[in-house]
Queue: 3 jobs
Job 1
Amino acid sequence: MHKVGNAAIASVTAVSLCSGAWLLHSAYRSDAPPQPSAAQGAVEPDREGSAAPALPPSPPDRIRIPSIHVDAPLMGLRLTSAGSLDVPPADDKNLAGWYEAGTMPGETGTAIVAGHVDNTRGPAVFYDLGALSKGSTIEIGRRDGSTAVFTVDAVEVYAARNFPDDKVYGAAGRPELRVITCGGGYSKTTGYQGNVVVFAHLTGSR
C-alpha cells in the first residue's frame, strides 16, 4: 500500500455518516445520541504530553472502546470521487472503518477511524461516541497481533460548515488517532448538522 497521508482529505467531513437514518425513519424515537460537553473539549489536543513509542506499521482490524461498549471490526476506507472520506456500509451497525491510504494506528502521524452513529434500525457502532470522557481508553487490534492503546485527549463537536480540517486530519509528530461520527444539531429534513471527533494519542501497546 502506498501511503499518501491525510492531506488528500481537504475541506470535507464524514457527511455520509450523518443522515440520521434511525431518527428520520422512526415514529417512536426523537432522541439524538449523546453529545460531548464543553468540559471534554480543548482548543488544541495536548501535543506535548507523554506518548508511547511508535509501533511498526501494521493494518488495524478491530476497535474497542470499553467505556462505551464498542467492540467492532475495522474495514479499509478510501476517498470518494468527490474527495470525501468514504464510509462503511450503513446496513452493518457494528462496523467501523479506517483511512487506509493514511497513517496506520500506532504509527507516527494521525490515523483516522470513522463509523455510523445509527442506521434505519437503530443505534450503530459510534452512537455513544459523544459520551466519551478525557482519559478514556481506545484499543486498536492490529493484524500483527499487537494492540495499540490510545488515551483520549479531547472530545469535540463541530458544525459541518466550520469543520477544522487541519486540526482533525493534520500531521502529528507522535502516534495520534481521530475517531469520527456524526453529531451536533439534528434536523428531520437534513439529518445531523456536524461531526463528533475524538482526539487521542498512543500511550501503550501489548
Job 2
Amino acid sequence: MNILYISSGYARVYQFFDSCILTELKKFFGVRVEFFTQLQDFSGFQLICNQFKPDIVFTLLGDLLPIDTLNWIKDQRFRSVLWLTEDPYYTDRSIKILPFFDIVFSIDSGAVDYYKSLQYKNVYHLPLGTDPGVFTPGDKKGKVHDICLVGYPYPDRIRLLLLLLKETPYQIQVVGNMWRKQFFAKATDTNVSLLNRWVHPSAAAHFYRSAKIVLNTHRPYDEKTNQNSAGIINRSINNRTFDIASCKSFQLIQYMDDLPLHFQEHMEIVSFQTNEELIGKLDYYLSNEEERQSIAANGRKKVLLQHTFHHRLKRIINGKLN
C-alpha cells in the first residue's frame, strides 16, 4: 500500500504531528510512504501522485491546500482522507474542505454530528493520539510543583487559576505563550511560576512529569477568536489528555461528555465539573500520593493499549470507520 501524506502547512505542534504520523506510518508492514510539503506547488503535487501512485492521500486540516489541488484530489481514484484536528473551534473553515475528501475524521463528536446534520455522511469521530516515545514516565520522586497547567490563557483558565491562588496554598507552574500579558498583571502571588512561551511537546512532557497534578481544561467552544459560527459545543477530550496519561502523570481533567469512552473514571483518570469539586479533589489527591500514582499508572496502560498515533493510523489505513 502506498500512502502520500500531505503536510498541514502549520508550524509548532503541527510539525510535531507531521513527524509522529510519518514515523508511525513507516512502521506498518507493506506500507510505502511519501511526504508532500510544498502545498502551493500544484504541478509538483500532480507529479508525485502520478509517479508514486498512492492508494491513500491523507492530510490534517486541509485548509491551506489551493483549490486546484482540492479539485484534483476529488477527481482521483485514490482514497482521500482528511483529519480535522481543530474541531469544533474552526468549523467555519472545515465545512469548506469536507466536499473534497472521500473520508473525513474529526476529533470532536459534536462536530461530527453537526456535519452529519448537513448530510455529510462520510464523517467519523477519531481523536488525536499520543507518542509514548516522547510522552514517557519520569521519576516518581522529587516533584517540583503541586499543580501544572500547560496551554493558552483563555479567560476561563485565568479565572480558575486566580481562584486556586486565592483559595489554596499550592505551588502552581504555568507554561504557555501570552500568560505574562493576560494573567500576571493580575496575579502577584509567589505560589505561581511562569514559563511565558510555547514549548515543544517534549518540553511539555517534562512539566507533566514534574508536577504532582496536571490540570487539564478545554478551550471554550465560544471563545472570541474561534471560527465556530454554528456554536457547536465541544464534547470530546483534547489530545493533551492522552499526552499527560502517557507520561504516567496524574491529571484532573475538566469533564467532557466523551471522557468515559476513553478512560474509566477514578480508575484511570479523575475529572471535575465545578470549581468546588476541583478544589476538593486537589486537596484529596495531593494528600493521597499512592492513589494518585495508581490512577496515573492505569491511565498510561490504557494509552499504550488504545490511544497512540499508531492506533489511530491503523484505523485510517484499514478503513475502519467506526
Job 3
Amino acid sequence: MKFYKAFFTITFSLLLFSCLGFSKKDAKTNENNKITKNYTPSKETKVAYFASGCFWCVEAIFESVRGVEEAVSGYAGGQTKNPTYQSIGTGRTGHAETVAVYYNPDVVSFETLVSVFFGSHNPTTKDGQHPDYGTQYRSIAFYSTDEEKQIIEAKIDELNKSTYNNQIVTEVTKHTKFYEAEEYHQDFEKRNPNQGYVKAVSVPRLNKFKKKFPELLKKESH
C-alpha cells in the first residue's frame, strides 16, 4: 500500500509540474476562448526553428531576445500530418515541441540565435529537458540552408570541445514543415504566470537565461 501511495504521489507531482500535465482549461484565453498573436512579418523578417523541451519555456526565452519580433509554439520534426498537443504527447508522431522564431537579421543573426538555443538548455540530455521527458521534448536545431547547417554544426563542434566533452545529442535537421500549436499554447508563460509549471519551471529557466545573456535582452526584458 505504501508503495502504491508513493507511486501515485510521484506521478501526480510529475504531471503537475510538467508541460504534458497541462489541461486546456488552465489557460487564460480571450472572449472567444482563443489566443491570437496578430503578427504579420515584414519582408526582411527571417524564421528559425528550435526545439529544446517544453515550448512554453522556449518561446518565452526567444521572445526576450533583442531582434526577435515574435516566437510561435508548434510542432516539427516528425512524419505525422496535422499533429496536435494530445497526439505528440504519445511520442509516436515523431514531432517535437518546436518554436518558430521570427527575427530581424539586421538586429540579431542566426548565429546568435543558435547561441541562445544552446545556451538556454542542456543539449546533452537525450529525449527531454527536466522535468519533461519523451521524444517530443528532444533537442533539435533546424536549418533551412547549407549556411545555417554549417553554423549549427560549427557551434556543436565548439561546445563539444570546450564544454560538453563530445556529449551533445542535439539533432541537426533540415526544416520541412512547421505546424502551429493550438492557440491556447501561444504566449502561455506570459498569460499564465500563476500556473504551477510556469512558476516552478518556465520562469526559473527564463531568469537563468537572462542572467547568462544580459547583453542580448530587449530593454523591457531586463
